[in-house]
Amino acid sequence: MNLVFVGFYFLLALKQGIGLKTVKDIPEQFIAEFEGGHKQKRSVVTGTVLTASEIKVAVDKHNEYRRIVVPSASNMLEMVWDPELGKMAQDYSRTCTYAHSSGRRTSNFTWVGENLYLRSNEWSATKVLEDAITGWDNEKKVYTYSSKACSRVCGHYTQTAWAESYAVGCGVTTCSNVTVGSKVWSTAQIVVCNYGPGGNIKGKHPYISGSPCSACPKGYGCKNGLCSLSADSNMLKGLTSFMLTATVFAMLYTTV
């Protein structure tokens, strides 16, 4: 019977030792927006909720670039889709306003980051999401990690690469008769992505440099170079299954 008690005590200790915690929200008063916007009102043509496959593209593309930041990140969290952030982004994209929204917060985040993208013709939601996220990532070319400085606009990049921003939601809307500077676009698409908790805190690096996953928060595992709760959950499930099997065998052995 001693083996049975050892098995149960191990499971209890494992459960107590791995607490799945979330990153604390960032106080709104510390936020510094890196980029501005152009206030342009437009009429909506189309704007629908993203499909499951489009959501996957948005999340995967963000994580793809988060894995390959230079220098490498020791504490980069895996991004996951947040339905409330997604609704916020889709609703705002339908206003066809190419300027940052105000008072961004949700039930889970007291500060929500926001990236905007505009193009002059219509693509599929999948293609325009990929183009927007890639364009934001390309701003890394004008960002210097050591000095935390941008030679041009790079706040979109620093938000997508903000280690503690682990939740994302995006929206896409096609608008008509868009005036941008001296040009009028008969059709334009706007992409809005919201992030929780929001990043771009003045004076801070977007992430801590170091070997991937070497500084993950407690309770996180490593999944393809990103700190992931799902990776840790899978590990916990595997260990739990193993210990339950061992416990059952121990019980059978002691009753024979």
TrEMBL record:
The entry's keywords: Signal
UniProt entry tagged with the keyword Signal: yes
SUPFAM superfamilies: PR-1-like
Pfam families reported for this sequence: CAP
Domain SCP: 53-203
Top-level taxon of origin: Eukaryota
Stretch forming the signal peptide: 1-19
GO cellular component terms, A-Z: extracellular space
Name listed for the protein in its UniProt record: CiUrabin
Classification lineage: Eukaryota, Metazoa, Chordata, Tunicata, Ascidiacea
Encoding gene, per UniProt annotation: LOC100185684
